[in-house]
Amino acid sequence: MASLGSDPQLPSISGRLARALLGWAGLWGLAVGAAVWLAAVSEVDELLDEGLMSSATLMATLALPADAAQGEGEEAAFAGRSPENFAWQLVSADGRLLLRSQLAPPTPWHRTPAAGFSNQDRWRLYGLALPGAQGQGRPGAEPGPARGGRMLYTAQTRAERGEARADVALSAALAAVAMGLLGQLWLRARVRAELRPLQALSARLDALDLDTQATVRLGPPQRRELVPVHHAVDDLMARLALRLGNERAFSAHAAHALRTPLAGIDAQLALALRDAPPPLATRLQRVREAAGRLQGVVAALLGMFRAGTALDRVPVDLGALLARLPAAGLQVAWQDAEAASQRSGARPPLQADADLLAAALANLLDNSLRHGARAVQVTQPAAQTLRLQDDGPGVPEAERARLQRALDEEAYEGTTGLGLMLADRVARAHGGRVRLPAGGPGFVVELSLAPAPPAALAPSSGPTWADTPPQP
Fold it and tell me: What is the mean pLDDT of residues 290-307?
């Protein structure tokens, strides 16, 4: 079966799912980040406001003297360091600034008492009313106004609050995006794992061979969803195997039925040629050549439908085999390249099924003759490799590439003739390939056959079509 391969122009299931998961992870992260931002703005504001309120209460209880005097009416800056971006003021009831932190402005935030939360310029404020003193003030001091109604203001810069909100929201958003990406990676790995049975199914389909397997089955499915696919493919393969078997049996029987009468026709034509006058002898010779080509076609059909069965590999004497092939009108020259360069002897003989090889070579020689060649040079450039090069016109490079592609993909119908198709089938039956090398004059065909395992080598069981000498 030809390799299923992959088309880069087709969309990929795993790629589409991966992109969809990535998009959803991004959208999910943005949505969660927006939700967290909205929640963080409210929650952080509440927490910071609670912090201002707690700071004001704590300062009123522990830090500020209950009898902070107004003195000569001049405010005093608190000498200690206060936290950055945090400030406070102590303001009298009549709006005079009594005490302040280093970061607090030198003017009161509010001229009139303002309890609770408020915004002032770049500050977020909380005002806390302090209780008045119960006495008249310090001993010996001049009577003065009551000290009740003082206000303690604690403040935080609004920029600091914005940064706090942004930090919280950004951290939450980053966490959400990170979780989304991790989820995407995990889901992508899961998708790949779940698509692996489809890849295994593709590999099984690619490994199926109707030519060599009597019963073609995919085996048990790996996922419940693949059960109907397996059943459908198994049923299709069973029907194809049955149909191929019927066609193979019919063709083999037809070829056998034609072979005997064709041999008789050839024998009768040979006898008629002996007694025929010259004008008639020429016509009878043409008829005999046509009958010989028909015998080659029949042998090719036999070989083609034997290509899927067990091979009868034997050491083949290529010189003797080529001498027996019907090639009237074509000069066939056999040269063992190894024997020509070394006196010690030729390279090991080709190990092949003699009948199949003879059928393939006969049809290749007939191809050369029909396309205008007068001579064919046959060499063995390497072990288990045969090279045929004729002196015909050859084919253009584009046509040669098209023929090679058809052989590689086993797309014979409407592309290659019987000769190339049979040669490729025979080569594939031997575990090899047919190649059409570029360059050189004429048309070149190379048959590469895989070496035979030792157990496959056996002496020939008897005379074969390749052993039959040509008729006189």
Answer: 67
Q: Tell me the two tokens of residue 11.
A: 């969309």
Enter the pTM of the model: 0.47
How high is the pLDDT of residue 164? 78
Provide the pLDDT for residue 213.
54
CA atoms within 13 A on the CB side of 111: 0
Helices (H), 208-329: 227-275, 278-306, 318-324
Query: Does residue 303 form part of some domain?
Result: no
Q: 43: part of which helix (H) or strand (E)?
A: helix 13-58
Between the alpha carbon of residue 301 and those of residues 307, 371, 410, 465, the distances in Å are: 10, 21, 17, 13
The residue to which tokens 């290529």 are assigned: 318
pLDDT the model gives residue 387: 92
- Whose CA is closest to 314, among 460, 102, 446? 460
**Mean pLDDT of the region 113-133:** 84
The per-residue pLDDT for range 236-274, each reduced to its tens digit, is 877 877 777 777 677 667 766 777 787 888 888 888 888
377: β partners:
333, 389
- Burial class of residue 13 in the structure, from the number of CB atoms within 10 Å of its CB (0-12 exposed, 13-18 middle, 19+ buried): exposed
Q: Is the pLDDT of residue 142 over 60?
A: no
The answer to whether position 21 is within a domain reads yes
CA-closest candidate to residue 295, choices 260, 333, 346: 260
Largest CA distance in the chain: 169
Q: What pLDDT was estimated at residue 434?
A: 92
Residue 65 is encoded by which pair of tokens? Answer: 């003297």
Asked if 201 and 326 sit in the same domain, the reply is no
pLDDT at 303: 62
Q: Quick one: three-class SS letters along 292-318?
A: HHHHHHHHHHHHHHHCCCCCCEEEECH
Residue showing tokens 């830090």? 63
For 354-390, strand residue ranges (E) read: 375-382, 385-390
| Band of pLDDT at residue 305, cut at 50, 70 and 90 | low
Please state the domain count of the chain: 2
Do residues 158 and 32 both lie within one domain?
yes
Alpha-carbon distance values, 91 to 74, 86, 232, 330, 393 (Å): 12, 17, 90, 124, 113
Q: Which domain holds residue 316?
A: 310-467
The domain that holds 442 is classified in CATH as 3.30.565.10
